[in-house]
Amino acid sequence: MFDAIFSIGTIVIEQFVRTSVVEIIRHTVEIIRQHWSTSGNTQNSPEPHTNNQYTNTNSKDVIEDIEVIDVEFVELEKKVKQDGKCSQQDQERKQELEQLRSDKFKEYQKLKLTEITDEQCAEPGNYETSILKSDKTHILQFHMGQVVLEKKCSCGKPMILQSKQRLDGSLYQLNDFFWACTGFYNNQPLQCKRTQRFAAKDVGFLHKSDIFELQVSNQDISTIFNETSVNRTIISRIKSHVKEKDNDILCPIHHVPMILREKRDHLGAALDMFFLACPHIGCQQIVKLKSPAQLAAYLHRKEGRGIL
Cβ neighbours of residue 164 under 8 Å, at least 6 residues apart? Predict the structure, then answer.
């Protein structure tokens, strides 16, 4: 049963039964169409290889629109701070921008989903399936922080994949992961603290076949990552992208791409050097790249090749 789709095209499947990639894609598209039909969005449902109302637009264009909206919003915040007060006109414009940003993010989600299903239907041979097991929790870490499509909280807001912290450095277990509502980052009374347990049993993934990190075990990727020459190369590659945007990791509040940063006070360890931060002035949202799988995922998104 289709449960969620990550922005890089990975489909999460509950009650997974071995079947063909084509059948999984067909079933997923069918479920999405049914969902959008019942929610009154039939005009936006995925139609592989056919034109739709977004023919001249893609998800990247919408993200750029959101960035423009955020720039104006930041300028308004600066103006209010300088004036020492917020005029009615400024307040109304801020509300308009917030609504426009929300609408644009919904548009982004629909476009991104259509792009993913179009690609999967056109090139099913580029995808394969993996079963989630206790020795493959890094598959979940690989997708941490990424935009999740078609996974809604009961309040209607999108959910994201989160994990508990293991401060002792021990290996993560499947029951450490859960879905969390992005409404958590809203102020009261709009804040939502709902979470959903990640079904750790009979879960499968349909993902691109060129992601080699998803084909090995936790121990394998950890062993390779800890080789001195490999570790040094990974650090060098990631450093070359510092200050660049990551279009698959969006701030849950402002919906703008997060920016890669390097910690100022790190000790040279790759797992303590890098994080993604929201560029919106004053926003504290970050995503730490604290596992070999997350670093591999970042490199795969930016360069098309991870650490294997």
Answer: 176, 177, 178
117 strand-pairing partners = none
Pairwise CA distance, residues 103 & 113, whole Å? 16
CA distances from 279 to 74, 143, 180, 198, 282 (A): 10, 21, 22, 30, 8
pLDDT in tens, 107-161: 999 999 999 999 999 999 999 998 888 889 999 999 999 999 989 899 988 899 9
One-letter amino acid identity for 289? L
Show the tokens assigned to 234.
């990974």
The residue extents of the domains of the chain are 2-52+119-208, 59-101, 214-303
Beginning with the edge strand found earlier in the chain, give each strand of the sheet holding 245-250 in spatial order.
Answer: 245-250, 257-262, 274-277, 286-288
Residues whose CB falls within 8 Å of the CB of residue 98, separated by 6 or more in sequence, listed in order: 73
As given in the structure block, the two tokens for residue 155 are 């309040």
Cβ pair 263, 109 in contact under 8 A = no
> Strands 148-149, 159-163: parallel, antiparallel or unpaired by DSSP?
unpaired
Alpha helix ranges (H) inside 86-163: 88-122, 138-142
Task: Quick: pLDDT tens for 168-181.
Answer: 667 788 888 999 99
Q: How far, CA to CA in Å, does 284 sit from each of 43, 45, 104, 185, 287?
A: 37, 35, 22, 11, 10
The model's pTM: 0.86
In DSSP terms, 13 is beta-bridged to 2, 204
Tokens, residue 89: 């006109």
User: Which residues 6+ apart lie within 8 Å of 136 measured at CB?
Assistant: 130, 214, 217, 218
Which residue shows structure tokens 């999460």?
A: 12
